[in-house]
Amino acid sequence: MELMVDFVSSLDGYGAAEGWPGLWGLEGPEYLAWLAQDTAADRTILMGANTYRLMSTMAGSDIEGAAALDAAPKIVFSSTLREPLSWANTRLINAEAVEVVRELKATSQRPLVTLGSLTLCRALLSAGLVDRFRVVVFPVITGTTGRDRIYDGYPDVALDLAETRIFDRRIVLLDYRPRLLDAPLPPGLLSRR
C-alpha cells in the first residue's frame, strides 16, 4: 500500500513559527475546502507522540477538518504515551516504526499518510518506504520565528514531480515521488531525464 509523507511548510522550510497562528493565518477558502475533502480521504494516519499531543487537542472540536480527523484511523508510535489514548480511532504502538510501517505497507487495505512527525517521516524516508512526498508551501518566510525545520537530518533525495496545484492564488501544493540518492547527482543528469 502507498505511504505519503505530508507537510505544510513556510517557504524557508519551517513547519511552524512562534507567535503565529496555525498555517501562519494565511489559509484561504479554496485551500480549506480541499483540506477538508483530502483529510476525509480513506487513509490511515501515522504520527509520533509530539504530533499526537498537539493534534488530539482538536478532538471533538468544531475546527474545520476536526471531525474527519476524529473519524480517521490513526496510529501513534510512542514509547512515552500510555493507553488509553483519548483520541477516537487511535492505536498506540510501542515498537520500531520502520518495521511496523514496512509490514503495514504489505498488509494494509488503506493508503498510509503521515501527519507532522518530523522524526518519524525522516526515518521512513531514510528506510526507502515513502512513495509520495507532498508539501504545501505557504507564502511566508519565518527566518526569525520559525521552528520545526522540516528537512534537517534528511537523506539526499531526488524528487520527481507528480502533481502541483495552487490554492487561493498563493498557496502551492507540490506532490513528488521520492528517490533516495546514494551520492549527489552528476551535473546535467536531471536535465537528460
From TrEMBL:
Residues 3-173 form the Bacterial bifunctional deaminase-reductase C-terminal domain. Pfam families: RibD_C (PF01872). InterPro entries: DHFR-like_dom_sf (IPR024072), RibDG_C (IPR002734), Riboflavin_Biosynth_HTPR (IPR050765). This is Dihydrofolate reductase. It comes from Corynebacterium guangdongense.
